[in-house]
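[SOLVED] Need 3D model of a two-part complex

Original post:
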Amino acid sequence: MARQGVARKTEAAERDVARARARAGPRTAELDRLIHERVRLGIVSALAVNDSLSFNELKALLKTTDGNLSVHARKLEEASYVTCTKSFAGRIPKTEYRLTSTGRRALEHYLDHMEALIRVTRQG
Amino acid sequence: MKRSFGMTAPRPLHDRALDNLRYIRQTMERAGSFTAVPGWGQVAVGATALVAALLAARQPTPELWLATWLGEAVVALGIGGATMVRKAFAVNDPLLSGPGRRAGLSFLPPMVVGGLLTVALSRAGLWHALPGTWLLLYGTGFVTGGAFSVRIVPVMGVCFMTFGAAALLGPAAWGNWLMAAGFGGLHMVFGTIIARRYGG
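Solution:
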């Protein structure tokens, strides 16, 4: 009886993970390493609640250095998760970032993945 | 005998997932802005302020003039509060946490100072200083609280402060009409813009 109960729980947990993976699509069946990194996760999360944020706003928000932010933002840009627009405000260069629909989907899939992990480990 | 290798046990998967979700939520809260500023509510407040200005202008004593505007403040607080709560629920913007909390806490100190100065200036009989003081401090509240809200809110605050400066430095006779222009006109103009651009 007890063994059957455990088996049922395990099956339910596997179904949860499968459902989360199906929602995430084949590309993100595994953890999206690109936004799993803290600074990149912060950039994507911050842009998810703003139309756009400047380089300096992101730097202050995430309490990171110019070089660190620049490297991580470029990785997200290369993956088409964010777009980067460079302009001048007077003589001062201004870099603005926006989240793309691909980036927003990636964040949603990542959230699904984390929630599925929590559900599975709680059931287990 | 157990050997210690000086290594800590790896954190369970569950804890790391929870930690990541918490980090996402905190980052969103820090980065987000308070969007539940009620545009149509401000238009309604503006309309009641215009009525209050007309009523206040007809009062025979400064005490009754003050009572009229204090009554208007209570009405405005009720309309503003109710429409803000309604919009906050509609756009799922929490009032007591994140940007909503920070905007509220930044807006509050100038309002408290305004209340205290109202008592002090009334006791001293400096009635003519009240319109400028109110407009300046109300505008200050929107400039400080607006730092956590949509960009138009601090702009509105600066306009209130400009009217306040004019009321404070201009002739006493301007006071009531600058209050009408500020609490009535500015609320209606900016309220309409906010309602159209930011969903009600």
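Edit: Chain B has one domain: 36-197.
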